[in-house]
Write a structure and sequence with these properties.
Blueprint lengths: L1 E6 L3 H12 L4 E7 L2 H10 L5 E5 L7 H10 L6 E5 L3 H12 L4 E4 L10 H15 L14 H5 L3 H9 L8 E7 L3 H5 L14 E5 L6 H11 L3 E4 L10 E4 L5 E6 L5 E6 L11 H7 L7 E6 L8 H8 L4 E6 L9 H7 L5 E3 L4 H9 L3
Parallel strand pairs: 1-2, 1-3, 3-4, 4-5, 6-7, 6-12, 7-9, 8-9, 12-13, 13-14
Antiparallel strand pairs: 10-11
Helix pairs in contact: 2-3, 4-9, 10-11
């Protein structure tokens, strides 16, 4: 049974969330705290919890301040944030993920709204994925990862430019990521050059309202342009298109023969929406000579069936993240186990392998 530490300033919310957590036999709320100050003192005395469920807005010390303190004190604990879906809330969530939080749920403003079946299912699913993830690494709160992340290996670019003859054809890069993805993407996207010889489409499992902030954050760190995909976006080389949360992204040919983004609502697939499977399968009828599929950290198996179906009609090269560098080795494991991976590489090598496979202009 996983031991849960619940931190929230609302007594009613603590009660409602405790009931949800304890309703699943895999979890038990071992302790609660009313704010970051109380939580920090408790963690200093004893840190035997599997997951901390952490509210963002609290008096005395909020969730972000607590994460910073935990990094300063070198206290490692798997953390799941409970976030609002406002624009500001989404930005704060990105900050929390950078500071070591593993995943988050969108928490309704009212405790009564948390009692619905959809929220309970989403909450417990996310809690489980966080509970089986690796412990987060300590983050230096006095500096961001920006300089290191933005460093592009110029030698690789030069080598590719010298060997452009060996990299021919019209290619597209399609990335899938989930739990641990937002932070892992910061080790990949900012290392891609702005003259990458392919468009990049990306499915990161996130709810509505958060993918725009992820795109903005990645764009600020990167040479390559990053945007939240919009209906009808025409795919351009040197641009990363992040699927919107809560709706499936397809790549289709428009009336003028250009490949564009098209969103389709519908049920979840593999329990998620957007689904990487739909993104991969939509490329089966495209005119791209090769699809470079990248499968990164995440719970479950989204991407495997899509890549399998895509391979039936398309030349595909699959790069999957290795177990050691994954927060959760689920999606990449499924792809590797299915015998679909052409390369299994560590997180810090993914950008390099993308460039080596598609080239630069």
């Amino acid at each position: 049974m996983k031991k849960i530490f619940l931190v929230d300033d609302s007594a009613l919310m603590r009660s409602v969330l405790s009931d949800i957590i304890n309703s699943d036999s895999k979890f038990h709320v071992e302790a609660t705290a009313r704010d970051g100050v109380e939580a920090l003192e408790m963690l200093k005395k004893s840190n035997t919890y599997d997951v901390m469920v952490l509210d963002v807005n609290m008096p005395k010390m909020n969730g972000i301040e607590l994460l910073k303190k935990l990094n300063e004190e070198k206290i490692r604990i798997r953390t799941m944030m409970a976030s609002t879906d406002t624009v500001e809330g989404a930005k704060v969530t990105m900050d929390a993920l950078e500071l070591g939080a593993i995943d988050f749920v969108h928490k309704p403003d009212r405790a009564s709204a948390c009692k619905g079946e959809d929220f309970t299912k989403d909450f417990l699913t996310t809690l489980w994925s966080v509970s089986v993830s690796k412990l987060p690494t300590i983050v230096s709160v006095n500096k961001t990862d920006k300089p290191a992340d933005k460093k592009i290996d110029k030698q690789i670019i030069q080598a590719v430019q010298k060997n452009t003859a060996s990299i021919s054809g019209n290619k597209i890069v399609a990335i899938a990521s989930s739990t641990g993805g937002p932070r892992a993407l910061q080790a990949v996207i900012p290392k891609l050059p702005k003259n990458l010889k392919a468009p990049v489409v990306l499915v990161q499992h996130m709810p509505v309202g958060f993918t725009a902030s992820l795109a903005t954050r990645l764009d600020s760190l990167s040479e390559i342009h990053v945007k939240e995909a919009a209906e009808g976006d025409e795919l351009q080389r040197g641009t990363v298109y992040i699927a919107k949360g809560g709706i499936h992204m397809h790549i289709e040919k428009n009336a003028s023969g250009k490949f564009v983004i098209h969103f389709k609502d519908g049920p979840t697939r593999e329990g998620v929406k957007p689904s990487a499977n739909f993104m991969y399968e939509s490329l089966a009828n495209s005119s791209y000579d090769e699809v470079v599929c990248v499968v990164m950290t995440g719970m479950g198996a989204d991407g495997t069936e899509g890549i399998k179906n895509l391979k039936a009609s398309k030349k595909v090269h699959v790069i999957s993240q290795d177990e050691e560098s994954c927060t959760v080795y689920g999606m990449p494991r499924a792809v590797a186990t299915a015998g679909l991976s052409n390369q299994v590489v560590s997180l810090d090598k993914i950008a390099q392998e993308i460039v080596m496979n598609v080239g630069v202009t």
